Amino acid sequence: MDLNETLSSICMNCGLCCDGSLFNRVRIRNEEDRKLAEKLHLTTFSLPDGKMYFSLPCPFFKGCCSIYDRPRPNTCGKFFCEPLKKLMDGELTELKTRSMVETAVKARNEVMETAQKIDAYKDFSFPRVMKEVNPVPSENMKEHKLLQLKVMSARIALSRLKKK
To answer: Where in the sequence is the domain holding 43, given as residue range(s)?
Structure first.
């Protein structure tokens, strides 16, 4: 498998950048991307500094990108998490890169599996569960120590995918 196939394989089995696990927004870098985002009915907005974004989670992420073969904002295809960048630069092996990404996906899944068993959290999205402990646990979260631990573990695993 060549490097591009390896990168695609790792990336397509993750989706943490699209489902709102890593970020809550994506930067729109040019007019073409803005038009594409609006054509796709993505929720777009500007910050006071004038930069434009669209909100995550992406409605086209269904375990993987459901519009991968259609026109989509360039940002979508150009984003690489830190482990993928380090793999491209030869700083990480394929095995280590896969391990880091799989650990983060597993941690997210464990948070959601645990949350599903708690009435107060069963309908929460992953980002919403994460907010329950950010910056300190909510009163309700304080009653669910196992979920708190899973969230903290996920936070650590996800931090390894972000730029430092």
So the answer is: 23-78
DSSP string, 16-85: TTTTTSS-SEEEE-SHHHHHHHHHTT--EEE-TTS-EEEESS-TTBSSSBTTTTS---HHHHH---HHHH
Q: pLDDT tens digit string along 88-133?
A: 999 999 999 999 999 999 999 999 999 999 999 999 999 999 999 8
Please indicate, yes or no, if residue 93 is contained in any of the structural domains. Answer: yes
How, if at all, do strands 44-46 and 52-55 pair? antiparallel
Domain end position, chosen among 36, 52, 78: 78
Among 107, 101, 116, 112, smallest CA distance to 15 is for: 101
User: By the 8 A CB rule, do 36 and 30 touch?
Assistant: no
* Per-residue pLDDT reduced to its tens digit, 49-97: 999 999 999 999 888 888 888 899 988 888 899 999 999 999 999 999 9
Mark whether 123 and 89 lie in a shared domain: yes
Residue 122 lies in a domain: yes
